[in-house]
Amino acid sequence: MTMNIFRFLGDMAHLASILILLLKINQSRSAAGISFKSQALYLLVFVTRYPDLFYKFYSIYNTVMKAFFLASSGWICYAMQLRFKATWDPKLDTLRIEYLLAPCSILAILLCDKYTPAEILWTFSILLEAVAILPQLFQLTRTGEAETITSHYLFALGAYRGLYLLNWLYRSAVEGHKVEVIAVLAGLVQTGLYCDFFYVYFTKVMKGKKFQLPA
C-alpha cells in the first residue's frame, strides 16, 4: 500500500491509541474501565491480518508497525489477564463475542475476493475490526463514564478508523486503485459506532469535563 497523508495520520492515530492505553495500564497498574474482550478481538484482528509479516517484506516502516501492533496487543491481553487481572471486572465486560465472531467468519468466506487462506483471513480481520470496539462501548454504556485517559484512547482509535476510511477513498479517487468495498463499508460501520462517543468527547472532555454519558 502506497503512503498518503490519510494513511500516515491514520497510522499515527492508531499508534497513539495503543501508546495511550499502555500508558494508562502501566501508570495506574490497573485495567479498570478497559474491555478485555475488545482487546482480545483486536489481537485476533492483527494475528489474522499480518501473517505476511513472517514471509513477505514490504518496507521497514510496514514491518515495524505490524510487529508493534502484534506485540503491544499481546502484551495488553497478557497484562489484563495475569498482571492486573484483579482490576478487570468481568461483570461489566459482558458482551457475547461469539455473536461477533460467527457473523464475521461467515461473511469473510462469502465476501472475500479470492478463496485463498490469506484473502479470507484479511477479509475476516477487516470485518472483525469494524465491530471489535463493541464490547468496550457496551461496557461504557453500563458504567456511564470513563477516565479521561481512557476516553483519549477511544478517541484516537476512532480517529484512526475514520482516517483510514478517507485513505481508501483517496486511493480510489486519486491513485486509481480498486475500491476495497469491504474495507470502506467496514470503515463506515466502525466510524458510525463512534458517533455518540465523539459527541460526548467533544462536548465534555475537550472542555475539561469528565467523560460521562447523558443520563
Automatic annotation (TrEMBL):
<keyword id="KW-0931">ER-Golgi transport</keyword>
<comment type="similarity">
    <text>Belongs to the ERD2 family.</text>
</comment>
<dbReference type="GO" id="GO:0015031">
    <property type="term" value="P:protein transport"/>
</dbReference>
<keyword id="KW-0812">Transmembrane</keyword>
<keyword id="KW-0256">Endoplasmic reticulum</keyword>
<feature type="transmembrane region" description="Helical">
    <location>
        <begin position="57"/>
        <end position="78"/>
    </location>
</feature>
<feature type="transmembrane region" description="Helical">
    <location>
        <begin position="182"/>
        <end position="202"/>
    </location>
</feature>
<keyword id="KW-1133">Transmembrane helix</keyword>
<dbReference type="GO" id="GO:0016192">
    <property type="term" value="P:vesicle-mediated transport"/>
</dbReference>
<keyword id="KW-0813">Transport</keyword>
<feature type="transmembrane region" description="Helical">
    <location>
        <begin position="122"/>
        <end position="141"/>
    </location>
</feature>
<keyword id="KW-0653">Protein transport</keyword>
<keyword id="KW-0472">Membrane</keyword>
<dbReference type="GO" id="GO:0006621">
    <property type="term" value="P:protein retention in ER lumen"/>
</dbReference>
<dbReference type="Pfam" id="PF00810">
    <property type="entry name" value="ER_lumen_recept"/>
</dbReference>
<dbReference type="GO" id="GO:0046923">
    <property type="term" value="F:ER retention sequence binding"/>
</dbReference>
<keyword id="KW-0675">Receptor</keyword>
<feature type="transmembrane region" description="Helical">
    <location>
        <begin position="153"/>
        <end position="170"/>
    </location>
</feature>
<dbReference type="GO" id="GO:0005789">
    <property type="term" value="C:endoplasmic reticulum membrane"/>
</dbReference>
<feature type="transmembrane region" description="Helical">
    <location>
        <begin position="99"/>
        <end position="116"/>
    </location>
</feature>
<protein>
    <recommendedName>
        <fullName>ER lumen protein-retaining receptor</fullName>
    </recommendedName>
</protein>
<dbReference type="InterPro" id="IPR000133">
    <property type="entry name" value="ER_ret_rcpt"/>
</dbReference>
